[in-house]
Amino acid sequence: MNISPLAQFICPAILPGMSKKAAKAAKPVSPARIVGVRIAVILGASLVLGFSLNSFKPGPASPSSSQPTEAVPSGPDALPVAENGSPVTWDLTLSLLQRGKIVLVDARYKPNYDVGHVPGAVLFPSGSLNDKLDDFQKKYPVATPLVVYCSDERCHSSQELVARLLNRGYKTVRYVPGGYAEWKRIAAAAASSAK
Amino acid sequence: MSMNPKVQAVFRTIVGLLFIWAAISKLRDPSEFLASVYAYQLPLPEALAKGVAMALPFLELICGVLLLINCWSESAGTVALVLLVLFAAATGQAWARGLEISCGCFDLKMLGIQQGSSVAKFVESARFAFFRNLLLAALIFFSVRYEWIQLKKSSVPA
Q1: Which helix (H) or strand (E) holds A173?
Q2: Across residues B96-121, what is the average pLDDT?
Q3: Any CB–CB contact under 8 A between B5 and chain A?
């Protein structure tokens, strides 16, 4: 086997170490071909590693063990109407959700929801058409207290959806500014403290 | 115009280290990275978006390591150049459309920068990511160009 093409393929640094005779006998390989084969190897290795080792894990478990830090209002209308449209913390939201006092709404796109969402949250992307909003309203009447979240503190879709829902006549709608990213952090902290 | 090998090595090392950091950040939470891909709102089929999210971190890792150890660096650099141009296009369109998204590039907590802080918001913004990708693409372009010249020289028989 002629070692030169192999040496050229593996690493050019090997070439200076070749004897003059071997170098003369070397059949030159086009640089484009060498690079092409190497790129194919890099891409192939990435695909093999990616599809064999990488996987999408579901989101962490519900942070049921986290202690609420905000006083939870009592009464049937647990979310104060006076603070309609204003931010609310995850602690209060999760506490109310566990007691069935609110409906938690995920305002992100479906693919994001499918990757991971807060357990118990219903999907309703902020950009949904009005007929979807009609369906949502049939399922959750305007008296239903709603809390909306989106990706993180930079997204606006939760606030946009809050505005749409209030326009529709919903009585109690609030949003969690930290969104799903903050919930994940709370859930991870709760999971690590439970260990 | 020929490039100083030391300058080329610095460019290659910078891009290599950043690629390794980006890969580790993505591998730590693949689901979060997939969510970042979706956040760009690109017209990608779901299977392709998932494929990208699965393979891209390893592609970045392999390219980063090869650039760092200077083996196959012309090939790894070429792949890195293509990736950076694609990243610049993705972040550029996000910036142009006014999407307020995290670029999903690096895990800033690895540097002790708190998520949600003003520094993190700036570094993760699509606008900053766009210019950063263009700068890195320029660095790796000059490095790859140098590597190609060296490879052509070494492949000419004595």
Answers
A1: strand A173-175
A2: 77
A3: no
